[in-house]
Design a protein that fits this description.
By secondary structure, the chain is mostly helical. It has helices spanning 7-10, 17-46, 61-89, 97-129. Helix content is 70%, strand content 0%. The radius of gyration is 21 Å and the shape is rod-shaped.
């Protein structure tokens, strides 16, 4: 930090842009990654030649899908933790307009992280509860 930086730049409650972006987009990106990786992988393992198979092509498919879900859930939880810590740091009285914007983005990040962490969790439940290549009845 430079010695002649403005006083508002030196405040400890100021969130870095990278931290704020990670808190805001981490959980939605984790959910999109979970869907983008799991769905095509399961579809190819169960319907490789336009014919449904009784068993997946790869025996380790459920473990692979569970691992993808676990990594995405960890990323979503980390994003939620970052959003929660940003909310805690921005609870101080407002100093200027930038603080109000940061507070709004921190609260939006916390709400978004909660919603998308639940989406990752429910998608993971589907992977764990429904056997691969089984028809939906």
């Amino acid at each position: 930090m430079r010695a002649n930086a403005p006083a508002s730049f030196k405040r400890p409650g100021r969130a870095s842009a990278l931290r704020l972006l990670t808190a805001l987009f981490g959980a939605p990106a984790a959910w999109i990654a979970q869907l983008s990786l799991s769905e095509p992988l399961a579809a190819h393992a169960c319907y490789p030649y336009q014919m449904p198979l009784p068993e997946p092509l790869w025996q380790e498919l459920p473990a692979t899908l569970a691992m993808i879900s676990g990594v995405c859930l960890a990323i979503a939880l980390l994003s939620g933790f970052m959003a929660w810590t940003l909310c805690q740091r921005t609870r101080a009285p407002l100093q200027d307009e930038r603080d109000d914007r940061t507070r709004f983005l921190a609260k939006l990040s916390a709400m978004s992280s909660f919603i998308f962490t639940m989406a990752v969790l429910f998608t993971a439940c589907a992977v764990l509860l429904v056997s691969p290549c089984s028809p939906w009845h």
